[in-house]
């Protein structure tokens, strides 16, 4: 009976031109390869190639089987790849958490685009304030975490998505309006409006205020970006957000934006995953889609300077 291994052997023999090199390609000894070919010739009742020729000269019978191998083996490889892909996606579910409240602006278009690539992968999104997302990733409770605060954790890989600048949003009639930048000390007598998360997860604290030993006069929290902008526009405080999250409010002259420090405060947004999941085709497709979509829908972001981080 003709088998796929026979076809692979014939292709290896044709491409290498000798029994010795063909045996190496199919991981057999020369003796085992010769035995396999002789056994096949006995079954077929005809020789497949002319012995002691270099390069190997195939008989009409051998040429016919080579033509069959050219047709069959590529189809087998495609089928094997498709089966592996289907097996990897069977019941595939992407459990995701977000440590960035304003990320939904680009995450929703990313998910929509991803559904065209991997419609059979279900996506569950949890808020980052439910529990410690990165620890949940280590414990395999999650598959991906969107974060701007990478931590050295065993087995966790951080894929940079894009760089962004944090800007201070102020009311159009605020004393800071029209300024290019402010110093940390100038926020000491201000009300700072933030998302309801720990200060250690906010760039305005970790990269601007805390290193300068400054704390605002008052800190208020709001769940939604729109609520924060309403408070800022009405003069009830100032708010630091990624530049792309402020775009629509700046275009409508709802608020003004000021840099945090002369050089500005820049951060990088990462997708954190477990190292072994980097080989999953649908996971890589999601990361590629996220990076591409973010540059399509967001203003003011830049390609990441960071290389992928891993523990």
Automatic annotation (TrEMBL):
| UniProt GO MF annotations | DNA-binding transcription factor activity; transcription cis-regulatory region binding
Record flagged with keyword NAD: no
Q: Which residues form the HTH lysR-type domain?
A: 2-59
User: What is the first-listed, main subcellular location in coarse terms?
Assistant: cytoplasm
Q: Which Pfam families match?
A: HTH_1, LysR_substrate
Q: Which domain of life is it from?
A: Bacteria
**Subcellular localization, per the record?**
Cytoplasm
Q: Which GO biological process entries does UniProt record here?
A: methionine biosynthetic process
Q: Which UniProt keywords apply?
A: Activator, Amino-acid biosynthesis, Cytoplasm, DNA-binding, Methionine biosynthesis, Repressor, Transcription, Transcription regulation
Q: Which GO terms describe its cellular component?
A: cytoplasm
Respond yes or no to whether keyword Glycoprotein is given for this record.
no
In which family does this protein belong, per the annotation? Belongs to the LysR transcriptional regulatory family.
Would you tell me the protein name for this molecule?
A: HTH-type transcriptional regulator MetR
């Amino acid at each position: 009976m003709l088998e796929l291994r026979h076809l692979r052997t014939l292709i290896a023999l044709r491409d290498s031109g000798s029994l010795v090199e063909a045996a190496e390609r199919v991981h057999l000894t020369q003796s085992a390869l010769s035995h396999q070919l002789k056994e096949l010739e006995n079954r077929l009742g005809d020789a497949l190639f002319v012995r002691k020729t270099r390069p190997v000269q195939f008989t009409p019978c051998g040429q016919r089987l080579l033509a069959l191998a050219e047709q069959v083996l590529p189809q087998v490889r495609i089928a094997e790849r498709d089966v592996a892909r289907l097996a990897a996606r069977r019941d595939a579910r992407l459990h995701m958490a977000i440590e960035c409240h304003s990320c939904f602006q680009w995450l929703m278009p990313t998910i929509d685009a991803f559904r065209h690539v991997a419609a059979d992968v279900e996506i569950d999104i949890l808020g980052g304030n439910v529990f410690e997302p990165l620890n949940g990733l280590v414990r395999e409770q999650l598959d991906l975490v969107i974060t701007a605060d990478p931590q050295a954790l065993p087995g966790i890989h951080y894929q940079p998505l894009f760089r962004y600048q944090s800007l201070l949003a102020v009311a159009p009639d605020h004393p800071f309006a029209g300024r290019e930048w402010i110093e940390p000390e100038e926020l000491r007598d201000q009300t700072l409006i933030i998302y309801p998360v720990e200060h250690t997860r906010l760039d305005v604290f970790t990269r601007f205020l805390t290193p300068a030993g400054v704390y605002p006069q008052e800190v208020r929290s709001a769940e939604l970006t729109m609520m924060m902008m309403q408070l800022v526009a009405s003069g009830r405080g100032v708010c630091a957000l990624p530049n792309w999250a402020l775009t629509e409010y700046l275009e409508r002259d709802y608020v003004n934006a000021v840099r945090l420090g002369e050089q500005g405060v820049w951060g990088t947004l990462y997708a954190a995953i477990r190292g072994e999941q980097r080989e999953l085709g649908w996971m890589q497709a999601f990361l590629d889609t996220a990076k591409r979509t973010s540059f399509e829908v967001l203003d003011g972001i830049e390609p990441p300077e960071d290389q992928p981080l891993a523990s």
